[in-house]
Design brief:
alpha+beta; 6-stranded antiparallel beta sheet; 3-stranded antiparallel beta sheet; 17 strands; about 30% helix
Length: about 250
């Protein structure tokens, strides 16, 4: 009976872990560039211990999220679904993000969520004071200036992109990702990806399917709790009968 209870408890814990992921999906319905997350448990055989264990596998919905027209020139949408912007965080690490909501920070650099946006020279992109940048669909950053009464354009940088499937990445924090070590060298090269301005990619979370999954998990969890309760009651009755007979 103890083994049965342990199996039920392990199953219940797996449901709670899955539900935690679903809750996170639903809480990010309006988060820019958020990718829906799923999990499943895979039985893995360990040759050394000759044991079979359940290993949790996370994977992501790689579809494009809802597109929202903002008409803001610094709002960018990566057309390729495997495309990523690169940002440098306060800890100096480089991360990947689908969030194209770009701002000009206090240091006059382009940023996403207070992280520096990275250019093809692997450095932050600074905008000259009193100028407002224009971003082309190939990632080039342009400023307009006057020279001898003529309007001129000058390229001051280019946004760096990467192209890699989200399921080859590992989640860091706040919607940021890192390239898994075994894929790192393969994806070092720059990619020329197409972007569109004035558009932001929203979350790709399917609220209906997540709510249905929540209901299903709740029912399954309650059933497991009832099974555990029944096993405990049966064990008490069995022990009582054995004590009487003794």
């Amino acid at each position: 009976m103890k083994n049965e209870i342990c199996s039920c408890i392990n199953f219940a814990n797996r449901i709670l872990e899955k539900q935690e992921i679903i809750n996170n999906n639903l809480s990010n319905l309006s988060t820019i560039g958020f990718k829906e997350k799923f999990s499943y448990f895979l039985k893995v055989y360990n040759k050394k211990n000759k044991n079979i264990k359940n290993e949790k596998i996370n994977y992501y919905n790689n579809s494009i999220g809802q597109l929202n027209n903002t008409n803001q020139p610094l709002d960018l949408y990566l057309v390729n679904k495997n495309g990523w912007f690169l940002v440098k965080a306060k800890n100096s690490k480089i991360y990947l993000t689908r969030n194209g909501n770009i701002k000009i920070n206090k240091k006059n650099a382009l940023s996403i969520n207070n992280n520096f946006l990275i250019g093809i020279n692997n450095k932050p992109i600074y905008i000259p004071k009193n100028y407002f940048p224009k971003i082309k669909n190939n990632g080039e950053i342009i400023i307009n200036y006057k020279k001898k009464f003529l309007n001129k354009e000058k390229v001051i940088g280019k946004i760096k992109f990467k192209e890699i499937n989200i399921n080859k990445l590992k989640e860091a924090h706040n919607g940021l990702f890192e390239i898994k070590n075994k894929y790192y060298k393969k994806y070092l090269k720059n990619k020329n990806l197409e972007i569109k301005t004035g558009i932001l990619e929203g979350s790709n979370v399917n609220s209906i399917s997540n709510i249905i999954e929540t209901t299903s998990n709740s029912r399954t969890f309650n059933t497991i709790m009832k099974i555990i309760s029944t096993i405990n009651e049966n064990e008490k009755i069995t022990n009582k009968i054995l004590n009487i007979n003794n």
